[in-house]
Amino acid sequence: MANSKIKNQGLLDEGVSRELARRRAANISGIRYRLNFSLFPGEAMIKGHEEIGLKLNDATSPVILDFRDLDEQGRVVEGAVSDVTVNGSAVNDLRQTGGHIVLPARHFKSGENAIAMNFETAAAAANRPIIRYQDRDDGGEYVYTLFVPMDASLAFPCFDQPDLKARFTLTTTVPTAGPSSRTLVSRPPPATARTQFGSSMRRSRSALICSRSPPGRSNRSRATAVRFHCVSSFANRSFSARRRNGPKSNG
Question: How far is the CA of 45 from the CAs of 67, 89, 131, 146, 176, in angstroms?
Fold first, then answer.
């Protein structure tokens, strides 16, 4: 790859080829993801926002992210992204093909770079990393994640290969007023708290669960290193919160 053009078009085939994985692993490091998912009752499409920090050894080649969707027959189609920026400048010449987002090299520099974008990802009862389940017995709606290898790029744009580890912060936004109100309960507890305007958000290193609580509460956790085919999970439901005392952890 050179001068923003991809000579080996096989790099853009569906999935992550060995050559694409090798090239990215040799050139990209220091990856940091900041993810937000907006979870609202009954919505088949989940809106998200993402910021990616990364370090490039060489900025003469396009940066290729993985992000795909599925049609009704389960065939790969391009994922929905908008308002893409690199280092604060709008990117209007990106290309999407084979479940990849190709960002031209001219937007990058050697060293630290920042990518930001909005995206949409689907939630369904099956065959998705984000599951939306309607319980017929209690009438509740449950939203939770079920990741298997290579499913991260079906949920959000990323470098979907296990040797490109990253640090990430996960935020979920949920309604906090009216009959659809939710509060996120996380484990381990978030590290800090701050006020948000009418939205309840928590950032956590592991499972996220919803229950009712006062509006306008937000929490944040430290980032953690993960492999993205084993990304942290979340669950969403109108639960009642209970506290159970137990032995203290030494960790």
Answer: 15, 27, 11, 16, 20
Average pLDDT taken over every residue of the chain: 75
Q: What is the mean pLDDT of each run of 10 residues along the chain (251 residues)?
A: 55 90 96 91 90 97 95 89 98 96 97 98 86 78 77 92 89 74 56 35 36 36 36 50 51 46
Which CATH number does the domain housing residue 195 bear? 2.60.40.1730
Ordered DSSP codes for 50-69? EEEEEEES--SS-EEEE-EE
The verdict on residue 244 lying in a domain is no
**What is the percent of the chain where pLDDT is above 90?**
41
Q: What's the total number of domains in the chain?
A: 1
The pTM assigned to this predicted structure is 0.75
> What is the C-alpha to C-alpha distance for residues 160 and 16, in angstroms, rounded to an integer?
8
Per-residue CA distances from 168 to 102, 175, 196, 200, 237 (Å): 22, 23, 21, 19, 23
Instruction: Quote the Cα angle for 158-48-119, to 5°.
Output: 65
| 158, two tokens | 């990323």
Position 247 in a domain = no
Residue 29 in any domain: the answer is yes
User: How far apart (Å, rounded) are the C-alpha atoms in residues 81 and 79?
Assistant: 6
Integer Cα distance of 235 and 184 in angstroms? 9
Element (H, E) at 131: strand 130-134
CA atoms within 13 Å, Cβ hemisphere of 24 = 25
Structure tokens that stand for 169 in this block? 């912060």
